[in-house]
User: Which sequence fits this backbone?
């Protein structure tokens, strides 16, 4: 029997008839009537007039009938709140029904009735149901708390439901645990600051157990919740990873991706030398590939995430290139994503295959896809040097097809190839020039004009070509106009005799007839330069350009790290942090990857990674005002050390500011490397440089942060002035000076990198050798833009103390390796021990006495601090600033005795007795410690602090 | 999570809507229609669309769009998987519909996938090993990419609480597997045996992927010549399909579809076997070949007529091939034995193998 008969319409007076039937004495008839009512409701008829009659049917033992009435209630309660109260009693009664199914049904329905007046009646039954003996009721009630919270958050908090919900995380039934987690996650989302999901190793263990036994949906909630946990050390991280790995074989792709998120995040804490690290890398590849055989919608989301994963850890999928090959009937959104990932994975090993594929794609039908494929060929050429020649010849083949958009796209990328490999492929210029007339897109025109200007001496009719563009100068886009201006100036400098008129013409067009300030300014600069000193002009405009970088559209590292924490969410699809796009996100908490071999200390204090935190808060697209701010910051505050390059700030997204090169070199000689302008803004442009845009401001603010950090030394530990650690002579022109500081529990290494070589430096990275206290960088070395010659950059590198430990001699010796694009350099430095003095180093009096006695006398060491004229209180204050705490002060025979304690990051206590004689500038320091070898260094710290 | 759900048919009618929290106006779907228009082809509508106040996450199944409205940060895969489940449920509902009055089955037991008290007079367990070959073959006939997507679909009608163990002759083939939740992962990790208490009825036990490293055998080859003459309104078409490496099994159910370039007006072809159709509107050529006998290879050949004056088409059409091979799992996967514990009766057991073409494309 089907239910379709209920949907056939009857005559007039329907409501009246139904009313009679609903009030019938016969149970069967009643049920039929309710079914008819529900049917009418579903097709959109208003049957709310029957509310009292339907509610009357609620008191029944028949479960089917009850379900139907509840369905009706959910639909109409909102429009009939007063009548809905009538139903409350039955709900309360049903919540105590012996049948668990009815209890659950009642509590669920009450949660779905979004009527304020009802909610208060809901509390008591809900409280009972949350502690029901039956897990099915408890799990339903758990979800009901989240629903209620959505209606009336205050009520839920006042009633203590949140605590009950937290208790359910330890429930014996996995489904209850999963639902409690789901409910808490949902509530936490609207209250990001609340510590609802404050997990500890015990609750983590509960979750991991429930993970194996609950439904797929529950698993997703639990995994997402686990991902927010910060394991205390690498061993805990590994054990969680081990228990999450089986989820990679789940049939539900959302479970798989959530598991991937947990693993990607916790992997950050594992040492790369660990066998398990390698095992994990291998295990991650197959499930990611499998996601690509699912439905296209799932594939799309998976691909967007793989794009992030490949940037973060390219080793995972480096052998899986083929699965990203495009099938002709893939939806276009899948094709474009696959192509993106193919380029990211392209390497010398697989470039032949990739290129063959790309060539195939360039003959497809879809225009967007073809364009992207052509561009991809260019990117391959730039990325894999060995393939450049083949890429160029492939592009030439494509130009021969004369398909308009293919030609334009090819010319844009060939320009980049010229930039990357100067004086290598210029033989193709003639072929390019043949296609001049067919170019109608600004980007392609600009690229072609750049080529003509750059190689004017090799193109016989360069002047004619450029002149032909000049005719419609005012109709061109800014990009083309700027390009044309520079190209003609270049031409003039190369062939001054024939082109004087032309250059006059373009300069006057740019300066007198244009409304565009950029164009005018550039025109004036050229004009003045040419009129004052043509030789200098030549040196400037035709100067050798810095090479363009290989990867052009990488996501900025701090953003990437944040996005890794959001794998599987909308943020991962949009490649933006949720704060940038989720409406009404009430102060979304930023997530960050755990530091390698995690330190709870640095994770808790945001100061530990100032630049990372700051940069992450910036959305990917920087508003113009922000740039201005960055500019001002650098101009006003920039010490002799210059900030990151800001010349790129005026570059439009995706628009290649080729003139930047000319302008840039112009400025460099003109202004003499002024910090604000001398930056090499030229390295950013490429085929598309959206991510590059994020960098300047991010680090601009980072700078500001560093500066305030510097001022903050007044309140923090004593910071020694910077000294040169690595002279430029020893490091092929890279000079590093620095110092260490400690503020509010965060240790950092404050560095100044100066480029004293003639070439641009990039790709900085830093590593520490194992050392006595496990000091290690808590974040990668962030140098946001390549360092131009004579440029310096100031960086504060957050440190933690959870690295590998090895006793060094001297104890405070730190061996550091710094890498850049040129070489790897090593140096060692001694850090002052007081950066390791922790904030809670104040021992209790009694404890101090006991410990002092307890430590054997042979562990005591005595030192003299000479030439110090401070009084006891000043000494005490000064030392306290560096976390040496005075516990007691005594005056014995005119001498001040200070009893002090301090604790090192590794938990070693040091007790001190400092004797100060008013007339004697020499203090006596007695130190007692269970590890006497640190005493000498503690003394050095005392000495340094007191004398500065 | 999901705020509202709209079901939209191909002609753009919203024929069903469901709101969980508050009613979101149908007008939110206008953004979806806009994207649909832009995508031209229904299959190209992006699955995640952002609108000023909402996100629309959609799937396309059986000519119906399931469009969900999202307001908060959610895992889109969660939503998409869920929508597919909704679509599955609709399919089931078309067959039967009634309001149940029992507890949702298995909600509370330790094995939520199996209902209690199952009873059959005939106890049977059937396993279908189904493998699909996804491949891209290039112009010259060499394999650009090939992998096998396999599944084991099961139909289990066993009384009580049977505990099954399924073992393979060559379990090493399975290095990338997704399991039904009933499978004990530990046993698989340690012994490479599938040990499970099955759900009742039809379900997918595992799905697996055998990638190109393990050498995927390609069971057919295609010889093709598709060419268009410069400055002429015609071209040649000549395609032959032949079998290879199929371990003595017959390749059957062969169908070739080709999206011909837009400029093609019609095609005059002769098939030595089977029948062909050409749809001049969609430009799709379909050749239903049937079974391939090695003695006489099926061939389709003739003239392609182009619109007069149209330029020579630039793109090369790909040939999409479908086929089936019965009683063969092309990866070589073989079930060794099935044991049952926990119940006394003797079940009837059966395993069937079949290989099919998945996304099997030959570039020309």
Assistant:
């Amino acid at each position: 029997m089907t239910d379709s008969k209920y949907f056939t319409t009857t005559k007039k007076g329907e409501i009246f008839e139904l009313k009679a039937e609903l009030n019938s004495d016969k149970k069967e008839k009643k049920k039929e009537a309710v079914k008819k009512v529900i049917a009418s409701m579903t097709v959109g008829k208003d049957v709310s007039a029957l509310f009292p009659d339907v509610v009357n049917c609620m008191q029944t033992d028949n479960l089917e009938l009850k379900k139907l009435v509840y369905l009706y209630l959910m639909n109409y309660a909102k429009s009939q709140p007063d009548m809905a109260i009538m139903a409350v009693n039955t709900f309360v009664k049903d919540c105590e029904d012996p049948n668990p199914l009815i209890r659950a049904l009642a509590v669920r329905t009450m949660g779905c009735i979004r009527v304020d007046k009802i909610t208060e009646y809901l509390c008591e039954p809900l409280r009972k149901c949350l502690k029901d003996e039956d897990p099915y009721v408890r799990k339903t009630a758990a979800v009901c708390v989240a629903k209620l919270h959505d209606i009336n958050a205050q009520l839920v908090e006042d009633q203590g439901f949140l605590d009950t919900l937290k208790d359910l995380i330890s429930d014996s039934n996995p489904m209850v645990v999963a639902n409690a987690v789901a409910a808490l996650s949902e509530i936490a989302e609207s209250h990001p600051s609340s510590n609802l999901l404050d997990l500890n190793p015990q609750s983590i263990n509960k979750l991991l157990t429930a993970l194996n036994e609950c439904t797929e949906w529950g698993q997703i909630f639990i995994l997402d919740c686990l991902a927010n946990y910060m394991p205390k050390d690498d061993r805990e991280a590994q054990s969680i990873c081990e228990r999450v790995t089986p989820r990679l074989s789940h049939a539900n792709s959302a479970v798989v991706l959530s598991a991937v998120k947990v693993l990607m995040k916790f992997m950050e804490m594992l040492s790369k030398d660990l066998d398990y690290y390698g095992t994990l890398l291998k295990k991650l590849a197959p499930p990611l590939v499998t996601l690509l055989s699912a439905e296209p919608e799932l594939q799309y989301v998976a691909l967007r995430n793989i794009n992030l994963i490949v940037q973060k850890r390219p080793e995972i999928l480096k052998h899986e290139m083929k699965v990203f090959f495009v099938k002709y009937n893939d939806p276009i959104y899948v094709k474009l994503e696959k192509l993106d990932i193919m380029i990211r994975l392209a390497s010398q090993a697989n470039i032949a295959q990739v290129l063959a594929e790309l060539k195939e794609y360039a003959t497809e039908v879809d225009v967007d896809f073809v364009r992207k494929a052509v561009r991809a060929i260019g990117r391959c050429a730039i990325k894999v040097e060995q393939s450049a020649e083949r890429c160029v010849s492939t592009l030439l083949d494509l130009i021969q097809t004369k398909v308009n958009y293919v030609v334009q796209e090819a010319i844009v990328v060939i320009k980049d190839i010229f930039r990357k490999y100067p004086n290598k492929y210029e033989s193709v210029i003639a072929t390019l020039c043949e296609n001049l007339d067919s170019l109608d897109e600004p980007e392609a025109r600009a690229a072609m004009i750049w080529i003509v200007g750059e190689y004017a001496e090799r193109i016989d009719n360069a002047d004619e070509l450029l002149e032909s563009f000049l005719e419609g100068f005012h109709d061109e886009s800014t990009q083309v106009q700027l390009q044309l201006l520079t190209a003609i100036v270049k031409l003039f400098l190369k062939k001054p005799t024939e082109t004087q008129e032309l250059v006059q013409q373009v300069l006057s067009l740019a300066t007198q007839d244009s409304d565009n300030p950029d164009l005018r300014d550039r025109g004036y600069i050229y004009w003045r330069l040419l009129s004052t000193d043509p030789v200098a002009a030549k040196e400037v405009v035709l100067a050798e350009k810095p090479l363009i970088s290989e990867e052009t559209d990488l996501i900025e590292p701090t953003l990437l790290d944040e996005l890794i924490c959001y794998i599987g969410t909308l943020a991962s699809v949009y490649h933006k942090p949720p704060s940038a796009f989720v409406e009404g996100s009430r102060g979304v908490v930023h997530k960050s990857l755990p530091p390698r071999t995690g330190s709870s200390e640095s994770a808790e204090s945001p100061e530990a990674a100032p630049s990372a935190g700051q940069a992450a808060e910036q959305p990917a697209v920087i508003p113009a005002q922000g740039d201005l701010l960055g500019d001002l910051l650098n101009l006003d505050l920039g010490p002799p050390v210059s900030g990151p390059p800001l010349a790129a700030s005026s570059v439009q997204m995706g628009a290649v500011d080729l003139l930047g090169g000319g302008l840039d070199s112009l400025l460099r000689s003109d202004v003499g490397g002024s910090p604000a302008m001398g930056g090499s803004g030229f390295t950013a442009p490429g085929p598309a440089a959206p991510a590059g845009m994020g960098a300047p401001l991010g680090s601009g603010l980072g700078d500001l942060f560093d500066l305030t950090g510097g001022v903050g030394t007044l309140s923090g530990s004593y910071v020694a002035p910077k000294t040169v650690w690595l002279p430029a002579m020893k490091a092929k022109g890279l000079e590093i000076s620095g110092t260490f500081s400690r503020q509010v529990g965060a240790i950092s290494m404050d560095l100044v990198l100066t480029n004293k070589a003639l070439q641009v430096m990039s790709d900085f990275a830093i590593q520490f050798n194992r050392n006595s206290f496990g000091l290690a960088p808590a974040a990668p070395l962030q140098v946001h833009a390549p360092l131009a010659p004579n440029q310096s950059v100031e960086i504060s590198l957050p440190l933690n103390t959870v690295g590998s430990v090895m006793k060094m001699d001297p104890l405070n010796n730190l061996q550091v390796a710094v890498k850049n694009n040129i070489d790897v350099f090593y140096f060692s430095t001694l850090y002052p021990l007081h950066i390791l003095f922790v904030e809670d180093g104040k021992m209790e009096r009694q404890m101090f006495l006991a410990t002092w006695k307890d430590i054997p006398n042979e562990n005591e060491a005595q030192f003299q601090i000479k030439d110090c004229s401070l009084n006891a209180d000043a000494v005490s204050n000064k030392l306290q600033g560096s976390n040496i705490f005075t516990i007691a002060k005594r005056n014995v025979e005119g001498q001040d005795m200070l009893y002090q304690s301090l604790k090192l990051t590794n938990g070693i206590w040091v007790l001190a007795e400092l004797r100060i004689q008013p007339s004697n500038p020499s203090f006596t320091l007695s130190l007692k410690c269970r590890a006497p070898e640190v005493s000498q260094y503690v003394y050095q710290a005392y000495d340094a602090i007191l004398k500065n | 999570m999901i705020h509202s759900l709209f079901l939209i048919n191909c002609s753009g009618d919203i024929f069903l809507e469901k709101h969980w929290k508050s009613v979101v106006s149908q007008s939110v779907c206008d953004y979806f229609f806009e994207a649909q228009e832009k995508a031209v082809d229904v299959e190209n509508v992006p699955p995640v669309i952002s609108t000023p106040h909402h996100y629309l996450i959609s799937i396309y199944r059986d000519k119906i769009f399931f469009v969900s409205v999202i307001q908060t940060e959610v895992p889109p895969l969660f939503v998409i998987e869920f929508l597919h489940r909704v679509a599955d449920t609709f399919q089931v509902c078309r067959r039967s519909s009634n309001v149940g009055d029992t507890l949702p089955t298995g909600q509370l037991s330790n094995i939520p996938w199996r209902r209690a008290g199952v009873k059959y007079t005939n106890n049977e367990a059937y396993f279908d090993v189904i493998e699909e070959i996804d491949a891209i073959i290039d112009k010259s006939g060499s394999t650009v990419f090939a992998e096998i997507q396999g599944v084991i679909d099961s139909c289990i009608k066993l009384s009580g609480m049977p505990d099954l163990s399924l073992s393979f002759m060559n379990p090493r083939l399975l290095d990338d597997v997704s399991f039904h939740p009933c499978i004990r992962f530990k046993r698989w990790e340690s012994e490479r045996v599938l040990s499970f208490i099955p759900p009742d009825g039809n379900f997918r036990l595992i799905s697996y992927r055998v990638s190109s490293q393990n050498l995927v055998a390609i069971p057919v080859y295609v010889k093709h010549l598709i060419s268009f003459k410069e400055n002429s309104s015609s071209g040649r078409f000549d395609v032959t399909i032949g079998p290879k490496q199929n371990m003595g099994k017959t390749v059957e159910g062969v169908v070739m579809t080709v999206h011909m370039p837009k400029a093609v007006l019609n095609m005059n072809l002769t098939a030595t076997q089977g029948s062909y159709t050409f749809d001049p509107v969609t430009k799709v050529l379909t050749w239903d070949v049937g079974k391939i006998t090695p003695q006489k290879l099926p061939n389709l050949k003739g003239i392609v007529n182009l619109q007069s004056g149209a330029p020579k088409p630039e793109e090369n059409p790909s040939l999409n091939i479908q086929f089936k091979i019965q009683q063969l799992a092309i990866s070589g996967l073989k079930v060794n034995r099935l044991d049952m514990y926990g119940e006394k009766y003797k079940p009837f057991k059966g395993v069937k193998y079949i290989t099919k073409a998945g996304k099997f494309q030959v570039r020309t």
